[in-house]
Amino acid sequence: MAHPLAVPLADGAWRLHTVRGPWLNTFVFAQGPGREVTLVDTGLPGAPKRVLAGLAAIGRRPSDVRRIVVTHAHPDHAGGAAALAAATGAPVALHGDDVSFALAGAGPRFDPSTRGGRIMARLGKGTFPPVPVAEELTDGQALDGGLHVLATAGHTPGHVALLHEPSGVLVVGDALMNVGRMRVSPRALCNDARLCRQTVRRLAEVDHSVLAFSHGPSVADGAALGAHLRTALV
């Protein structure tokens, strides 16, 4: 049964709500038959308390976390990483192209070629507690527990999606969002809007059963992504 803080996606996979409702999500993946888990994304700086409560709701303790993976260095994904690393003792992993931003606690610039990006730049990139990155991820890397790294640069230089092969859950980070409707990341929020629309295409080639968004509810339809991209990216 779904818990207000934790929603099962598939065997060994859950979505944790770091705000009320599915509008900013952290994901938990079980590693094999034991209690050990990997966390994917950490929410805003104030999210760790809810993340830890979500872990408790599925019977996991902070000490069960063996790795924290951050899809990209924006405050709503990396903001809670430092606190969760301290609370769990788990190392933080991030794609190498976003490491400098995570260490500085400030996201990359927004795309100045778009009007929205220039407006966002004037509003500020958003800061967060610097992240103690222990591992630099690379495209195609296979992590313990069945997570497969898919580089999808554009939203940020080091943005990644993650396929949990045992469950078929594909975490798309912010390459795609499902707020009101499924859509590619808005141009105003991208570091390189054109590149984002190029790299997101590779996700349509990934065999999956559940499409999991950082922003919005998941979609349990392996064909939904390909159908969307065929119409959205013509």
UniProtKB/TrEMBL annotation:
Gene3D superfamilies: Ribonuclease Z/Hydroxyacylglutathione hydrolase-like. Pfam families: Lactamase_B. Residues 24-215 form the Metallo-beta-lactamase domain. PANTHER family: METALLO-BETA-LACTAMASE DOMAIN-CONTAINING, METALLO-BETA-LACTAMASE DOMAIN-CONTAINING PROTEIN. This is Beta-lactamase domain protein.
